[in-house]
């Protein structure tokens, strides 16, 4: 069952241009110049209930604009858009009660209040029944290990702790769709890992459909079985995440430790990162990995060997560069 259907969705912004200085300001009073920018262009997308989808794209590619149209914050310029059977831009109260949105750079918490006070406020805003509210508070505070933060002012919490509270606030009314725009931005590695675990549990146990935008590709790779890549306002890929990374992840990093002093000569297409008499690290084409590892064990006294995937940042840069203007199924 499709709960989101988008056909030929387009959003065009009209941008005012003004020359610098007082003279330019005066001229703009009588002769205004505008340019048009397509933030989202002829976009098609369908989302089934319970999916966890990642949106990938550079800054300015159109990800946040798409999220804002899906939630009714801004209106599309043209095209058809349906979310849960509603037209988002009509902003019907029944529709607003069935989704939630969390933006990593914008808070919905009140910094002078405690999270417990904020939760009570949102209970009233969303008309959450007492029993449902109690059960959700118990479930989410246990899942997020958040009981110790409930009765302290939000402004005293760390960024990671506040993000947990943001997610609880968004999920209190059992939304059918959760829109997340950069929820792990600025978080340390431990906090990012915790947030990823919580989101995976919400999707699994509650069946909540989640649309996630993130520049941290580990978020996309570990959470989203399906991803959509947006480049220059257009969709250039819509399919399985593992297939996408398999296509563009071209290299592996190999680190070898030796039991004795060893000098190894590598092919020219291998990039040496570190080389000492007892250890070497290099990047190589992934299709040659099996052969080179076999050669090491047959010809050298290997103490240890580690194989790592290519840095995700390099893979994403390649997706944008090589995938631009194309569409991959």
Concise structural overview:
This is ABC transporter related protein. Helices cover 35% and strands 31% of the residues.
Structural class: alpha/beta
Number of strands: 13
Q: Globular, elongated, flat, extended or rod-shaped: what is the shape?
A: globular
> How many helix segments?
11
The CATH superfamily title of the largest domain: P-loop containing nucleotide triphosphate hydrolases
Q: The CATH topology of the largest domain, please?
A: Rossmann fold
SSE pattern, N- to C-terminal: EHEEHEHEHHHEHEHEEHEEEHEH
Total number of domains: 2
The helical percent reads 25-40%
Strand order of the largest sheet: 5-6-7-3-8-9
CATH architecture of the largest domain: 3-Layer(aba) Sandwich
CATH class of the largest domain: Alpha Beta
**What integer is the average pLDDT?**
88
* Estimated share of beta-strand residues: 25-35%
The gyration radius over C-alpha positions equals 25 Å
The parts where pLDDT drops under 50 for at least 5 residues are 324-329
Largest sheet, strands/sense/barrel: 6 strands, mixed
Distance between the termini: 20 Å
Give structural notes.
This protein starts with a strand and ends in a 6-residue tail after the last helix. The chain has helices at 21-30, 63-70, 93-96, 115-125, 130-143, 159-171, 189-206, 217-223, 241-248, 289-299, 312-323; strands at 2-17, 33-48, 52-57, 78-83, 99-103, 177-181, 209-213, 226-231, 234-240, 251-258, 271-276, 279-285, 302-309. It is an alpha/beta fold. The longest helix is centred in the middle third of the chain and has 18 residues, at 189-206. The protein has 11 helices and 13 strands. It has 2 domains: 49-246, 3-Layer(aba) Sandwich (Rossmann fold), CATH 3.40.50; 251-309, Malonyl-CoA ACP transacylase, ACP-binding (Alpha-Beta Plaits). α7 links the parallel β6 and β7 (209-213).
């Amino acid at each position: 069952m499709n709960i989101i259907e988008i056909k030929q969705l387009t959003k065009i912004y009209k941008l005012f241009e003004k020359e610098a200085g007082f003279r330019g300001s005066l001229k703009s009073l009588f002769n205004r110049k505008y340019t048009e920018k397509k933030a989202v262009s002829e976009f098609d997308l369908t989302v089934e209930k319970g999916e966890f989808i990642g949106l990938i794209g550079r800054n300015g590619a159109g990800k946040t604009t798409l999220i804002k149209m899906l939630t009714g914050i801004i209106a599309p310029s043209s095209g058809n858009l349906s979310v849960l059977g509603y037209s988002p831009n009509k902003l019907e109260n029944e529709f607003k009660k069935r989704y939630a949105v969390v933006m990593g750079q914008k808070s919905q918490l009140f910094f002078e209040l405690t999270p417990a006070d904020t939760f009570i406020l949102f209970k009233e805003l969303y008309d959450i029944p007492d029993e449902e509210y109690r059960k959700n508070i118990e479930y989410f505070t246990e899942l997020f290990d958040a009981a110790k933060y409930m009765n302290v002012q939000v402004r005293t919490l760390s960024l990671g702790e506040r993000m947990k509270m943001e997610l609880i606030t968004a999920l209190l009314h059992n939304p059918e769709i959760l829109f997340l725009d950069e929820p792990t931005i600025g978080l340390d590695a431990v906090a990012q890992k915790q947030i990823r675990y919580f989101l995976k549990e919400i999707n699994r146990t509650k069946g909540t459909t989640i649309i996630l935008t993130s520049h941290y590709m580990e978020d996309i790779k570990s959470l989203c079985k399906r991803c959509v890549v947006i480049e220059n306002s257009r969709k250039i890929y819509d399919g399985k995440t593992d297939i996408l990374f398999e296509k563009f992840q071209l290299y592996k990093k190999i680190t070898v430790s030796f039991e004795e002093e060893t000098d190894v000569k590598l092919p020219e297409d291998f990039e040496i990162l570190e080389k000492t008499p007892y250890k070497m690290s290099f990047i190589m084409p992934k299709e040659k990995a099996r052969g080179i590892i076999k050669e090491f064990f047959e010809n050298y006294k290997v103490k240890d060997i580690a194989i790592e995937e290519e840095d995700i940042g390099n893979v994403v840069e390649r997706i944008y560069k090589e995938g631009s203007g194309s569409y991959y199924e």
